[in-house]
Amino acid sequence: MTLLHLASDLLLGAGVLLVLTGAVGLHRLPEFFTRTHAASITDSAGAGLMLAGMLLRVEDGGTAVRLLLILLFLLFTSPTASHALAQAALQDGMTPLSGARERAR
Amino acid sequence: MSTLLIDIALFTILTVIGLAIARIRQLFAVAMLSGLFSLTCACIFVLQDAVDVAFTEAAVGAGMTTVLFLGALALTRSREESTPRSRSLPAMLAALATGALLIYASLDLPGFAAADAPVHRHPLTARYLQDSPSEIGIPNVVTSVLASYRGYDTFGEVVVVFTAGIAVLMLLGRGAATSVSAPARVQPLHQQNRVLRVVAKLLIPFILLFALYVQFHGDYGPGGGFQAGVIFASGLILYALVFGLDAARAVAPLAVLRGLASLGVLLYGGVGVATLLLGGAFLEYGRLGGGDALAGQHLGILLVELGVGICVTAAMILLFFSFAGRGAGRPGKTDE
């Protein structure tokens, strides 16, 4: 039981860390695509790990199934949203900041 | 203690979003922020145990309104003009005066969850809460108040939704009918974006299924016709966004939608007329069950909620088609 709690704490902590990383990245990274990348970490990996952490703490099956479904939903939707966002930006003529462009400056 | 912290955090977020909305001039960002505002409100409602309201706020405020805002922005410019200072000063004074007045008025409100608040002392509250199980017989008191005790009000709300749908159709209706695949359209999203297409196809059935669950589970838990209608419509709107407006129109033709919107209102009103014919008052569902008043209430609420759901679904899709079709019919317009 305590081991489970420890694992859950670790997962929750890792999730919080990733969410914070995403928030910092959103502020500090140089351009749209890198910032999208940072933001997408928050709701895929960050929320995913936190949900996994919560999953280890629940006692009844119904809640566990709901958490799993939320996790599944997030795994499908949040990467898709980031992908669609980046795709739309590319189509709009935005070019990612690549190493080559950086050197050319 | 922890709820207090969550409350403080949520209200802080709410204030920050409000200030950001006032300051930001990029209207697309403002539309997204207002969606976020609704979502935060929904969280606060959940904390206050008003799950039905939270559900509606999340579905309508965060979901549907944002989509409609974006559709409307596509028709106009997406950047707010800055108002000259000479004109913004009186506006600010008026806003400050109104705010001060509201805060002053809020001092008269009873404390949050105070037991002696007028709502709790009103005899009607006790009657709804105590007699609903024996009179209406469904577990969710919110639904029994909404659909049965206050059936007139809800009928009015459905008519409002219906009227709004008609008004938008009259103003922008040409857009809803024009074909989008006309000249110089950018490739529809689905031909270029396989990921989006696959995920949307995966999600839409579940969205529609969830809408049906919300529709028919409203008697037992949070939910009902309004939320279900919006969720069902959002499933179709997602389809329209990913697969193109023409494909969505093939699924839900305009004539069918118009018919369904009226059918919803007619169904609601028809239940009322049926109870009249059976010798009761307007919307007195107890008459529908023959001798069994409880069965009548069940049937009446089911039918009425179905009417609400059908009307809201059709009206929401019509609104979206009108906005989106109008925007897509225009030649490619770029602002900034």
Give the structure's gist in a few sentences.
The complex is a heterodimer of chains A (105) and B (336). Chain A is an all-alpha fold and 105 residues long. Chain A is built from four helices and no strands.
Distance between the termini of chain B: 49 Å
Average pLDDT of chain B: 85
Give the overall silhouette of chain A: elongated
Cα-atom radius of gyration of chain B? 23 Å
Percent in helix of chain B: over 70%
Largest sheet of chain A: none
Question: Which two chains have the most extensive interface, and how many residues on each?
Answer: A-B, 7 and 7 residues
Total of helices of chain B: 14
- How many beta-strand runs of chain A? 0
Measured as a percent range, the helix fraction of chain A is over 70%
Order of helices and strands of chain B: HHHHHHHHHHHHHH
Bulk shape of chain B: globular
Radius of gyration of chain A: 17 Å
Low-pLDDT ranges of chain A = none
Structural class of chain B: mainly alpha
Please describe the biggest sheet of chain B, giving its number of strands, its sense, and whether it closes into a barrel.
Answer: none
State the oligomer. heterodimer
Structural class of chain A: mainly alpha
Count every beta strand of chain B, where a strand is a DSSP E run of 2 or more residues: 0
Series of secondary-structure elements of chain A, N-terminal to C-terminal: HHHH
